[in-house]
Every structure is written in C-alpha cells, then in structure tokens.
Design goal:
The chain is of the alpha+beta class. The protein folds into two domains: 42 residues, no CATH class; 44 residues. 39% of the residues lie in helices and 15% in strands. The model has no long low-confidence stretch (mean pLDDT 87).
C-alpha cells in the first residue's frame, strides 16, 4: 500500500506483514524500499503446512440412530407406519421400510 503523507513523503507497507513499512521522500523510493524490506522478510520465512483438526460436534440425537435396526417389533411397527402413511396419501403401492430405503 502506498500513502501520501502530509509532509510530502510516501509511506509504503505490506498489509499482511506489519513490520514491512517504510517512509521515503518519493513514490519510487518508497516502492524500492518496501520491496527490499519484503525480500529481506521473505528470506527469513518458511511456509509450512499445518493440519488443523476441525471436528463438528455430533448432534445429540445421533447416539440413538440405529438402535432399533435389529428389533423385530420395531420393524413390524415401522412397516405398519409406512403402510398407513402410504394409504393416507392414496398411493397404490405399499412399501416396507426396507423397500422404501432401498429405492431411496
């Protein structure tokens, strides 16, 4: 960034590197000086990748998912539930829960 100062000087800086800021008497001098400061700063920098573990907390209801998958009474209940749901919508074909999920 270049900024013309009130006293006629020019400030040049690199926004991402606050220590790379110079003040010079002219625009070209400021650009050259900030470029030199940037080159010096970049010479001392090593860019390394860092893995960040961003985990989304599990929704509390997820601990209940699948708890009835092998329960025959729940399967019978769910088949009746889906059958009633389809009858209430005047559908011709009645699917079991398993068939409904397989068609998904």
């Amino acid at each position: 960034m270049l900024e013309n100062l009130a006293d006629g000087q020019v400030a040049a800086s690199i926004a991402e590197l606050p220590d790379c800021k110079v003040i010079a008497g002219a625009r070209d001098e400021a650009i050259a000086a900030v470029r030199s400061a940037l080159d010096e700063r970049l010479g001392a920098i090593e860019v390394v990748p860092i893995e960040i573990d961003v985990t989304t907390p599990e929704h509390p209801i997820m601990k209940f998912v699948g708890i009835f998958k092998d329960d025959p009474s729940f399967i019978a209940w769910s088949d009746e539930f889906w059958a009633e749901k389809q009858r209430s919508h005047d559908d011709d074909e009645i699917l079991s829960l398993e068939e409904f999920l397989q068609e998904g």
